[in-house]
Amino acid sequence: MTLSTQPTSAVSLRRLLPDAKILGAEDIVVRSCAANSKLCLPDELFVAMVGAHEDGHDYVEEAIANGASAILSERALPTNVPVCIVENSHSAYAKICQALAGDPSKRMRVIGVTGTNGKTTVCRLIQSIMETAGATVGMSSSLGYDNGYDRQPWDCDTPSAAILADLLSRMEYNGCTHAVIEASSEALSRDRLDGIELDAVAITNLRNDHLDVHGSVANYHRAKKKILGRLRETGFAVVNADDAACSKLLSQIDTPALSVALHGAAEITASVVERHKSEQTFLLSAGDETVPVCTRMIGDHHVYNCLVAAAVGLVYGVDLKTVVRGLERVESIPGRMQRIECGQPFGVFVDQADTPDALAMALKSLRRVTHGRVICVFGSDGHDDMSKRPLLGRVAERGADLSLITSSAISGRGSLEVIHDVLDGYERPAKAHVMPDRTAAIEWALSEAQTGDTVLIAGRGAPNLQSLREEELPLDDVAIAQTWLYREQPEAEVEDDGPVLLKFPRG
């Protein structure tokens, strides 16, 4: 996708960015802009931004040679075209993109969802609730986008500011009344959501994550907190009160806020009634009303996701029964505790869990509904925070009866160093099984499973593409598992372990 916006209207930088300093002109009127010097077209504004590996200020001359008529930068530049100097070019670029798109967020109810885990699921649940209530809802998440007319997959959590502006504009054009946006910490730290007026913010949880990008826990939490600055004055926030960091944040929120909890006190709560591998039932309580919710997705973490989504729907005036119907309509989400059913006498789940916290939650959820062994296939992609790798090993050793370390790449090439890092987290490394070839590892784990066992295939989740010998080959854990199961067990019968009854909490 291009990083340049299509001209939809004229935008005055003097009016849009009143604190900016303009050199070489009284004002700069923008009809289109670009953040990539190679894509810059005649009479466009070139926005120079400092990236992780490159500085856009170094490519100003190339942009001018390609026809840029003005420059937006964070410092004065020796050029013969007007220059607009701002403190933060990332933020300015996002605001310009939204203005050129006609500021669509001013005419829709835009809901921002952030947190360490559960963002994508909460986005889909909110969309389902509001659609069940009769609204037309667009969505942008790590699984792809829905602009109200068509749905397409992509490979990012939050797109660039230009793409996000174009997407919101298309949602408005297609009649969307609401839009749900997944906001990653990287997108928030790079101010991609600036210029968007959020009507609601949902924060699922805040754990120690992405330290390789943000440098410290404080910086990571600070990036997440920036989403609250995008709330309009009449907006509201939904926060997980059971999460320590979120609970602390709750006391700092100036706008109206609603809390949810599974174990503590909150405005909206839940209590689990029963669970088994194919579904779980919990009671959802809001005010004086309590209704049962039966969902095909299992685990406490999914109950939290449902609570957050339900809170958003309730604030928008959706009645509780409609909220429940919306929650129950979402039977599965690709790569999020996705159950594979091919007639096998044991459970098979595919989950994205690529962090110690997410892997621990997945293993804990499956342990509660498994009468036999829990077998875990997991790995690291080699591009993550190296400090996480030993923690992944520690979690797998403690949470699974049989753990198999593999690569997250289809070839297994270059993964031995990563596997060695994961093994460092084991107290008894001899208990670990190592098989770098991911396909072979998945098939071996399935062949080891017996009646009553559960196999968790973790670390990749939704379908992906990996490069192997200059070719793009599909790396899909679901397809690998299904192919083996249908081939090896064509006549196997499903054997349900039966529900696991849970006691109601007291007090």
Automatic annotation (TrEMBL):
Domain Mur ligase N-terminal catalytic: 36-85
Family from the record: Belongs to the MurCDEF family. MurE subfamily.
InterPro entries in UniProt: Folylpolyglutamate_synth_CS (IPR018109), Mur-like_cat_sf (IPR036565), Mur_ligase_C (IPR004101), Mur_ligase_C_dom_sf (IPR036615), Mur_ligase_cen (IPR013221), Mur_ligase_N (IPR000713), MurE/MurF_N (IPR035911), UDP-N-AcMur-Glu-dNH2Pim_ligase (IPR005761)
Domain Mur ligase central: 113-312
Protein name as it appears in the record: UDP-N-acetylmuramoyl-L-alanyl-D-glutamate--2, 6-diaminopimelate ligase
Subcellular location: Cytoplasm
UniProt xrefs under NCBIfam families: murE (TIGR01085), PRK00139.1-4 (NF001126)
Keywords carried by this UniProt record: ATP-binding, Cell cycle, Cell division, Cell shape, Cell wall biogenesis/degradation, Cytoplasm, Ligase, Nucleotide-binding, Peptidoglycan synthesis
Any one cellular-component term (Gene Ontology): cytoplasm
GO biological process, alphabetically ordered: cell division; cell wall organization; peptidoglycan biosynthetic process; regulation of cell shape
Domain (Mur ligase C-terminal) ranges: 335-461
E.C. number: 6.3.2.13
Predominant subcellular localization, coarse grouping: cytoplasm
The protein's annotated pathway: Cell wall biogenesis; peptidoglycan biosynthesis
GO MF, one example: UDP-N-acetylmuramoylalanyl-D-glutamate-2,6-diaminopimelate ligase activity
